[in-house]
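Good morning C.,

I know you're traveling, so I'll keep this short. The sequence:
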Amino acid sequence: MSEVKIALREIPTATVDAVEYTHLDYYSDVKPVWCPGCGDYPVLAALTSALAELALPPEDVALVSGIGCSSRIPAYTKVYGFHGVHGRALPIATGLKLARPELTVLVAGGDGDGFSIGGNHFLHACRRNVDMTYIIMDNQVYGMTKGQASPTTDPHWTGSQLTPEGSGLNPFRLLGLAVSAEANYIARTFSGDPVHLAETLIEAINHPGFSVVQILSPCVTFRPEQRNWKDMVRPMRHEATSDRLTAGFRINDEDGFDMGLIYKSSRQVYQCEHNNKMDVSSLGEEFTV
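The tokens, ready to paste straight into the viewer:
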């Protein structure tokens, strides 16, 4: 596979307790197996750069994913990773954050994993408002299973043999769902702009509560027309709002190519009080036959 090179701005090295971090400190030795030109390459690059700028020790970060091309990301990083089952990344991450509140918990997934079988979990993750960040790589197609229409696919797309005349179904407006279910931070960015992408991830991770970042991440293998997204994206036309009604109207009034922060709230973050020093050594005895 040809090497994909991403041009990123130089991010200053961060120092915490005399330990220096660069984006290379967050890469594992596992080589990505995405198709050449996949939008997920710059997402991985921007994420590792964001973690370096935030000066987060790799052992203090957990990255949870479900199933799909985008959900391979935990294997390509040196942070704690959990590759879950289809659509279940958010409840797994919620349990992890509540049990280990000192961790920075990130969730990575795609439009198929997150909004088909995982759709109901998304709504409740927004509603609960646990402090974690959901990184959604939206390519409007099931890429790993060879190009079927996904929940965010345009109803007139005829590129799949399963829906040769289009699905006829209106796509989920996932950020509209996020506003309705009261996520605390909602933004959209583009994998072809890794500087804006990294800056958005930094702000989302820093913001308390449940943060949702939709990333338009082209699948040039099954949706080659998405190469044109670089000419279609534009800066957000409005300043971010903390009013849900205003945010909802704005989302329903645009075409999905406005990039930037849409909504930011200070709603109280859900936390679970518990004794985190419980002795778990005896739990296995309950399962002894």
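Safe travels,
E.
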